[in-house]
Design brief:
With 395 residues, the chain is an alpha/beta fold. It folds into 3 domains: 87 residues; 61 residues, Thrombin, subunit H (Beta Barrel), CATH 2.40.10; 198 residues, Vaccinia Virus protein VP39 (Rossmann fold, 3-Layer(aba) Sandwich), CATH 3.40.50. It has 8 helices and 15 strands. The protein has an 11-stranded mixed β-sheet, sandwiched between helices. Helix 6 links the parallel strand 12 and strand 13. The longest helix is centred in the middle third of the chain and has 14 residues. It starts with a strand and ends with a strand.
Length: 395
């Protein structure tokens, strides 16, 4: 039986749009150096690395994905947009992405095509659509870090993995905006628009990410949160996802349930406030070094008001970091959020930063890690909850 060398590797796709710096990390638990297709010349180099070592390779625009073509920006009849695609009751919106099957009758896409296209413009009877890959115009940098050697193992049937396709497919690029981005109608609607205090009157000590994802989020926060700094934790609950080894933090928490806040041991100050009904923050200008909003931005119905307040209370140069995943309270998340691709949600949050004057914008995604074996959702998926982060600084 044939054998091949295997390893666990974390890849990063690094690129810059007009709005932000982007880093999309993908953990591949098991790579096969003989069968898998690696970007560029990485296969040979990676076999020489020790765990923890990293290599990097730069690719011109259009090398890892199909190059951009002007003919793939085209006008189609508005009637060619299948509003009933998979029973979703879709409406074309400029700036949004949709599965290719939505325009199967008006393009070469098959009815089951899931590759995304972007709606560029909506007219009375026509649509302008962009069928190019969302990363087609960007130079891409790929880094690869060996996390573990798995030794020589038997090769079995099946095809190899296309690592570049895994990195660039299923989302990266959708967070970049064209033109001015989406147009939003505030307040954003939800299934349950009743007073939030009714929903949160009962404590909800739940996890919206698994333990592995929590470790990843904590490590991301640790890059920004310095010892002896002041932190505002917005829309918080019984955990702040901060590294407990960071010394002398002064963490102020704003949440909706007193019991949840009292259960959070990191908080030095606890305040009850519904940011949807009262977005004004009860703090002086330039009060905090860092503001966090963990796994909650999808509940904001008037986010620009809150983002403006965060910018006011941050010290100059201070960071505002939003994180989210793919689990939430479904009736309380804004409806638009629930209809978007996960990477489109990154773009939506990025729009909020742009509209409220934040600088040094960055996005990060982390996917592919394995779910802990004792996790309650292990039977549904072996993969850990993805982590998405958008950050910016007060100028």
């Amino acid at each position: 039986m044939n054998q091949a060398q295997h390893a666990s590797i974390e890849f990063s796709l690094i690129w810059n749009s007009a709005q932000a710096a982007h880093g999309d990390r993908l953990f591949v638990p098991k790579t096969d150096f003989r069968r898998d297709i690696f970007p560029g010349s990485m296969a040979q180099e990676l076999q020489q690395l020790q765990p923890g070592e990293r290599i990097e390779q730069v690719f011109p625009a259009g090398e890892l994905v199909e190059p951009w073509k002007s003919r793939d920006v085209r006008r189609i009849p508005l009637a060619g947009f299948r509003r009933d695609f998979k029973g979703l009751n879709l409406s074309p919106q400029a700036g949004r992405f949709y599965p290719g099957g939505v325009i199967a009758g008006a393009s070469e896409y098959d009815p089951g095509e899931i590759r995304p296209f972007r709606v560029v413009e909506v007219a009375d009877d026509r649509l302008t659509v962009d069928l190019n890959h969302p990363l087609a115009q960007y130079p891409l940098t790929v880094t690869a870090t060996v996390t573990a050697h798995l030794g020589w193992q038997a090769q079995r049937g099946g095809s190899g993995q296309d690592i570049a396709g895994m990195l660039t497919g299923k989302g990266p690029g959708l967070q970049a905006r064209n033109g001015t981005g989406l147009e939003y109608s505030f307040p954003l609607s939800r299934v349950d628009d009743k007073d939030d205090s009714l929903f949160y009157a009962v404590p909800r000590m739940v996890d919206h990410i698994d333990a592995r994802s929590d470790e990843i989020l904590t490590s991301i926060y640790s890059r920004q949160v310095q010892p002896a700094s002041s932190v505002l934790d917005l829309m918080t609950s019984w955990t702040s996802h901060l590294d407990t080894s960071i010394k002398d933090l002064a963490v102020t928490g704003i949440g909706m349930n007193r019991e949840e806040l009292e259960a959070n041991p990191l908080l030095s100050q606890r305040l009850l406030q519904d940011l949807n009904s009262t977005p004004a923050l009860p703090f002086d200008d330039n009060s905090f070094d860092t503001v966090l909003c963990s796994l909650s931005v999808e509940y904001l119905t008037s986010p620009l008001e809150v983002f403006n307040e965060v910018r006011r209370v941050l010290k100059p140069g201070g960071a505002f970091i939003n994180s989210f995943s793919e689990r939430w309270f479904p009736t309380k998340a804004v409806t638009l959020w629930t209809r978007m691709h996960p990477f489109e949600r990154i773009g939506m949050v990025l729009d909020h930063y742009i509209a409220t004057g934040f600088a040094d914008l960055q996005t990060e995604s982390v996917r592919g890690h394995l779910r802990p074996e004792n996790d309650r959702y292990r039977g549904m998926s072996p993969f850990s909850d993805p982590v998405y982060v958008v950050a910016g600084r007060k100028p």
